[in-house]
């Protein structure tokens, strides 16, 4: 029989907490009413969360899509006039992610205990990032929680759309390049050995490209070859990760990404869009500019831009404008810094930042479309060069023998 934790009040208003066993939720409610208790919260223990126990194990990462849906629905519920606690109860019951449902229940329980919404969210930083908590705190202070939640949902939708565009730009070349590697590997492992038996009967020196193909094929067919290849790949990946875990290494790798021939420009536009959109959303919701800059620094997604934002924050703290240190950083285009400068002078910084973000969002979309049309012929050409080179290397001895026979 399932067990239920409850928080309720008696007819005299006394608060009661405890656990009862019942066949289902309705039976548990009837049992509590028979005991003279009206349940405010009733949670089945089998869902893994106890209203009486702690919540230390609930701080797990939540998918961005789940958090987006939760934010949009909670904004609708709060703006319609329903109490926040009731909205959280509704969302915890309909959330498909069981861990997130437990987090929402824990948040509701802490709010019911007298804590503020933002303070409760700050207990779960992996589920609710700093940006989320700071905006909610600003919304609570300004009495505009539903408006801030709507801004958060819009921001998260734009970020998710940007992520989908980047993913679509990266997926095709990765899949196509993998197919090229598989085709080339199949030819070298299974086709070249057949020709090697034929060439051994020629009793003549083979052309250099043909001999190279045979040597590669012989190596890859040895039992230790895969160990060497896999070990090398793992070693390179581990080395890059270890290097990237250091502040200097992370900065250098991010700087290298921005210098990539095809994707560097795309990553630069993505970073500018993210920085300006995040800063605009935070300042519009009422977060102080210095606190907003600190959050933007942590969420920039690229250490080069994070350092530029950090230096700009120090300059603003010392009395400078935001536009000047960003211009000195050299990583923001002149159009961006000049528009920020105009926004600061006219008092419309958040709207100007949003215009910059929208412009770069459209630039990202155009770049992704252009990359797709550019990468496809490049990969087809690469496949032709690799496969054609292998075929040419295999047939060079045969062509030479046919020429000798004709002479």
In words, what does this structure look like?
This protein is mainly α and 407 residues long. It contains 16 helices and three strands. It has helices at residues 25-34, 64-79, 84-94, 98-112, 117-121, 130-142, 145-200, 208-220, 225-244, 247-258, 264-284, 289-299, 303-317, 323-329, 334-346, 349-406, and strands at residues 3-10, 15-21, 37-44. The protein has a three-stranded antiparallel β-sheet with strand order 2-1-3, covered by helices on one side. Helix 2 (64-79) packs antiparallel against helix 3 (84-94) and helix 11 packs antiparallel against helix 12. It starts with a strand and ends with a helix. Mean pLDDT is 81; it is low at 46-54.
Query: Which strand-content bin applies to the residues?
Result: 5-15%
Class from secondary-structure proportions: mainly alpha
DSSP strand count? 3
Number of helical runs? 16
End-to-end distance, in Å?
A: 94 Å
Order of helices and strands: EEHEHHHHHHHHHHHHHHH
Which helices and strands appear, and what pairs or packs with what?
Layout: E1 3-10, E2 15-21, H1 25-34, E3 37-44, H2 64-79, H3 84-94, H4 98-112, H5 117-121, H6 130-142, H7 145-200, H8 208-220, H9 225-244, H10 247-258, H11 264-284, H12 289-299, H13 303-317, H14 323-329, H15 334-346, H16 349-406
Antiparallel strand pairs: 1-2, 1-3
What would a concise description of this structure say?
This protein is mainly α. Helices cover 73% and strands 6% of the residues.
